[in-house]
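Pipeline run #58 for the internal structure catalog. This entry was flagged by the ingest filter as a single-chain record with no existing model, so it goes straight to prediction. Upstream metadata was stripped on purpose; only the residue string is passed forward. Reviewer on rotation: M.T. Logging verbosity set to normal.
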Amino acid sequence: MSNKKIGKVMMTMNSRPFIKTAKQKNKSKAKLTGMLLTYGVEDLEFISLIAGLIAISKFFYDILVMDFGDFWYLNLVIGVLTLFYSCYRGIYKIHRFNKDISLYYEKERNEAEKENSEITKLPLGYETLYQKVIYTNKTYQEYYVYSNKVNEHLFYEDHLMFKVDPYDYKIPENIRKYVPFALKDRLLKNATLFNGKSWGLASDIYLNSKIVSIKKVKYFDMLATNHLVHKTIKSKSNIDLSFNGKTLFLDEESRLRKLSESSMSDIIGVNTLAVTKDHYLIIGRQGKSSEVSPEDFVPSGSGSLQREDVLKIKSKNFLELIAFGATRELLEECNLPKKSNVKTRVFGYVRLLKRGGKPDFFCVSFIDATKEDIDMHMSRSKEVLQGFQGLPRMIKLQSLTDIDGMIQVISKLEQDSAAYKRIDMDDNNAISKVSLQLHVTKKFLQEYQLNSINPFKELEKQHHYEFKQSI
C-alpha cells in the first residue's frame, strides 16, 4: 500500500470519532428544532422563562449591592419556580416528540392505487404552455413539468426581477403534528440534518412574467411539506386520524397547485453543467452517505438557494440570483476557492412532481480552472472523505461548446444505469444511476440543439453573470 493510500486510510479512521460525535450533536439539535416546529412555544412558557431570568438576575444584583429587604429572597423563589416550569415544559415536549416519532406510520399503497404524480393534471393557465413528462431510470419513475418556451424565455430574458415576501414561511397548522414523522427516517438512520435557511418560489413563471416572489423557508419546512406529498400517514393512537399528502399539492380535481397558491415550502433548487478551460466536462457524483440520491451521477453543481445568496445580488435580478446560487454550489462541490472565475447562465426550469411541484432551475457554466486544478482540490475535500460526496467524472470534450459530446456522455451513463448496482465510491469504473437533474440537463441541451441553439456558445459571448471574486 502506498504512503498516499495509508495517509488517506489513517485520516478517514481518525475522523470517525469526530463524525460520530458531530452526528450525535446534530441529532439532538434536529430533535430540538423538530420539537419547536411541532409544538411551538406557548405564551405562558415564554413569559415564565423571561420572568424567571429577570427574578434570578434581580436576586444576584441585590446580593451584589448588599440590598437586603424583608422579602429579598422572594426573587430567588420566583426565579427557581418559573425556570423550573419552563424546563419542565421543555423536557415534556422533547419526551412527547420522541414518542410521536413512533406514533405515526405510513399506510402502504394498494396495488390498484396510482402514484399521485401519474394522476396529476396541469393547473389552469399551464395547459397551453407546460407539459408533464416521465423519466424512467431502472429502479424508479419520476414526473416533472416544464416548457420549452419558458426555458428559452429565461435564457434570453435579462430583466426578470424578484421581490421578497414580507412574512417568513410557516408549516401549516394542520400538518405540524406530522413533523416527527417527516424527520423519523433520518433520525433513526442518524443522518446529518441541518435546518438551513433557504428561499422558496412563491409565484409561477409565464412568458409575460417580469417579477417573481420568493419566500423565506428552511430545510425542515421542505421535509414536512414537499417530502410528504406521496405519503398517507396514519396514527397508532387514533384509527380515524389520517393525512393524505396529495392534498398538499393537488386540488379537488387532481390539478397541480400553482406556486402562488401553494402552502408548501417549495425550496428553489439550482443546478449547473460546467466545462473547464481545458475542455473537460464535469459530471458530479453523490456520496454513499448523501441523503438525496446516494451514489447518483448529478450535474457539476447541484443544491438549493441559500438565504445569504440574496445579499450578493444588488440588482434584484432573479436570473442573476439563480446563476449565483448555481455557481456557489459548483465551487463548493469542486472544492474550489471562492475567488475562482466562473461564467454562468440560466437555461431551464422544471417543477418536480415527486416533491409536489418543487421548482428546480438549470444552468450552464464555464469555469476558469483545469482538470488538474479540480483533481488537486477534490483530493483535500472533507465531504469526499466523509462519504457525503463522490469524486466527479471528468470527460474530455473536443471544445468548450461541444454539446454533442456532452449529450453522448450523459446518454452513455444512462445506458450504464440499466445495469445499476450499489458500488464502492473509490472504483473509478463503477456503475451508478443518473439523477433526474442530470437527465433533464441532457434533455434541455437536446431541445436547444433542435432549435439550432448552442447554450454554451451563447454563454461564450456573454459578459453578465460573471462571478469574479464575489462568491
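catalog note: The chain has two domains: 3-105, 116-467.
catalog note: Confidence is low (pLDDT under 50) at residues 1-22, 420-429.
status: ready for reviewer M.T.
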